[in-house]
Design a protein that fits this description.
mainly alpha, 178 residues
């Protein structure tokens, strides 16, 4: 049974062998990591260069497409601008015609109102003339009536004075006659 037992020196030797194998494996792993790291760096550089080249290609394609779209847009904008200018001119012409029509309607309406007002003014003037004529006739009649009254009054007063004078003369004559 003792033969099956492992001794301390055997364990130390196994440990040393394992440590040596571990160091060798570690060295190999480190070398492998370094190699893989270098390969990855090289691959990354290659991919980076490919991506840069591809990005430049896409960028150039986009620039070309943008220039084409820009040119198309400029052409389309000019077309829209031309259409809008034509529409604006049409609307402007329509508005001018509408303004002219409204102006003519207003002028006709003003002339109609002017005619009505002139007729009313003439009617009022004729009424005033008629009123003036009737007032003149009435005033003349009143003046003539007043004149007749004044004449009657004056004649009456003169006649009355004459009668009084004659009465006074007769009374004096009777007094003076013996």
């Amino acid at each position: 049974m003792q033969a099956d037992l492992v001794t301390k020196p055997d364990l130390k030797a196994t440990e040393a062998a394992l440590r040596s194998d571990l160091k060798a494996s570690e060295t190999q792993v480190r070398a492998e990591i370094t190699r893989v790291g270098s390969d990855l760096r090289a691959d990354i550089k290659g991919v980076e260069n490919e991506l840069r080249t591809e990005i430049k290609g896409v960028e150039n394609e986009l620039r070309t497409e943008i220039k084409g779209v820009e040119s198309e847009l400029r052409t389309e904008i000019k077309g829209v601008e031309t259409v809008l200018r034509a529409e604006i001119k049409g609307v402007e012409s329509e508005l001018r015609a509408e303004i002219k029509r409204v102006e003519n309607e207003l002028r006709a309406e003003i002339k109609g109102v002017e005619t009505v007002l002139r007729a009313e003014i003439k009617g009022v003037a004729n009424d005033l003339k008629t009123t003036e004529t009737s007032l003149k006739a009435e005033i003349k009649a009143q003046v003539a009536e007043a004149k007749a009254d004044v004449i009657k009054w004056v004649v009456g007063a003169v006649g009355f004075q004459t009668i009084i004078m004659l009465g006074a003369i007769v009374a004096l004559a009777r007094l003076l006659k013996p």
